[in-house]
Amino acid sequence: MPPKKRARVTKAGKDDDGETAGAKRKATEKTKESTESAAPPQYCHWLMKSEPESRFENGVDMKFGIKDLKAMPNQTSCWDGVRNYQARNFMRQMKDGQLAFFYHSNCKEPGIAGVIKIVKEAYVDHTQFDKKDAHFDASSKPDNPKWSMVDVQYQRMMKRYIPLSELKKYHLQHRADGGPLKDMALFTRARLSVQPLTTEEFDFILSLEEEKPFRWTK
């Protein structure tokens, strides 16, 4: 197992929409498993949120930006601490080799910082059993663990940082006129720290690297 890291989004902090949310959408955005679809759609691209700036919770710094991942041995780390059933289930769908965007959340300018790859499919998240960990879950038992994690590997930085504000402008335009970001989970399921992307959404966002920042206003 790679060295333990702190891949975090905003457990007790504020999400990009200014509302209280969960660290990697951890404990504070729990949802009931009974509300989940029995046959969820299958995805092959993802967006995974984490905090690039220091924020302490129970004495633990939740900071883990893309540069922290890049500095890890083999540029690889587990993505632990997810405490939301829907986000967990998305991780359980992930397949080795699939690509995801590394999204910086709970910071001055949230946005997409780089590309990472899933290099180990879902397995038991050990932090749920660690009483010293910020994401200890006393209700989860070793013989019936609730929470999973995956391993991710740094691939590259984006050619330019794609801020949330720019993505939102495209989302609003596409919602009005039609376009690949009209139903993007970042805006329709904003609180989730692990989100699916369609291939069309993923490819469109990659294409923005070559474009100047979007200046459209409604």
Automatic annotation (TrEMBL):
Basic and acidic residues bias locations: 26-35
Pfam families for this protein: EVE
Localization (cell): Nucleus
Transmembrane segments: none
Protein's UniProt keywords contain Nucleus: yes
Chain segments carrying region Disordered: 1-40
Keyword Transcription regulation annotated: no
PANTHER family linked: THYMOCYTE NUCLEAR PROTEIN 1
Protein name per UniProt: Thymocyte nuclear protein 1
Species: Larimichthys crocea (Large yellow croaker)
